[in-house]
Amino acid sequence: MGTKREPTARQLRLAIELRRLREAAGLSAREAGALLGVNSVQISQIELGTSGVSEKRLRRLASHYACTDTEFIDALVAMATDRTRGWWEEYRGLLPTSFLDLSELDHHARCRRDVAVLFVPGPLQTEAYARAIFSNRVPELTDEERELRVRHRINRRVIIEGPDAIPYELVIHEAALRIIVDDRAAARAQLSRLLDLSEADHITVRVLPFTLEGFARAGSTMTYVGGPVPKLDTVVRDVPHGSVFIDSEAMLGIFRTRFRKIEEVALAPDRSRDFIHELAKEL
After folding, report:
1. 3-state secondary structure (DSSP) of residue 229
2. Which has the closest alpha carbon to 213: 265, 272, 173?
3. Confidence class for position 1, pLDDT limits 50, 70, 90
4. Can you tell me the mean pLDDT for 28-53?
């Protein structure tokens, strides 16, 4: 018998939202199961992401939980019934699951906002920049592992360069622009790529210069990914062992405010382009 594949971050998010709805309704797993005609174990499996749920059952659960937000319910149904096998599936078993979860999150996003302090965000990186990043990982990667990660990172560009490119906002600190992760030629190429991308109508780049006062507002990296409805937005934070997905409504509200405050103190897009252009001339 084959081993069941662990649920993806998207499947776990669906499970979490269904559990939240049940708890908000004040029902136990046993009570919810009785309303659906199943036992509490099946409800628990659904809420752990280890068992799927049909559209019919999901809508019945939402009705029993007195959820009247039709857009939210429709979005949950789409998550439950989606059978997309995206480009990232070719890397399953070859790369850590977190890489695939990030790609799937991007694929279903309606927008993305990044705050970068030390490095240019992945989808904006040149191949040389990405290779330099992965070449300095600890523990060290084999050549094959490194090239798999580089290829995967380049493929992630589809969210901003593909036919279904999404609105993308970047606030990047001067430190990330000045750090030379490879050599000067690669650094110039990376800044040139940022300048080219910043000209696109759906991409906005703002710079936080060293001279900025009140830097405490911009002291940490974050990625804010917009879902099909605001309740399904996600914040991604990097940690030593990988990436953490944050999805509670309270925390999402905090990060929305944080991004707005950081955006307010950053240079305007036109001034940011001039700033990056001047940095490129220094290299």
Report:
1. coil
2. 265
3. very low
4. 92
- Both tokens of residue 96? 């850590």
Query: Residues 55, 77: contact at Cβ < 8 Å?
Result: yes
Tokens standing for residue 241: 């062992």
Full-model pTM: 0.92
Within 199-248, residue ranges assigned H as helices are: none
Whether 4 has a pLDDT exceeding 60, the answer reads no
Please give the sequence-ordered ranges of beta strands (E in DSSP) within the chain, or none if there are none. Answer: 111-116, 168-173, 203-208, 222-226, 234-239, 242-246
Question: How far is 83 from 39, CA to CA, in rounded Å?
Answer: 26
Rounded distance, CA 249 to CA 215, Å?
Answer: 26
What the block records as the tokens of 227 is 């879902």
Q: Please provide the DSSP assignment of 126-153 as one string.
A: -HHHHHHHHHT-SSPPPHHHHHHHHHHH
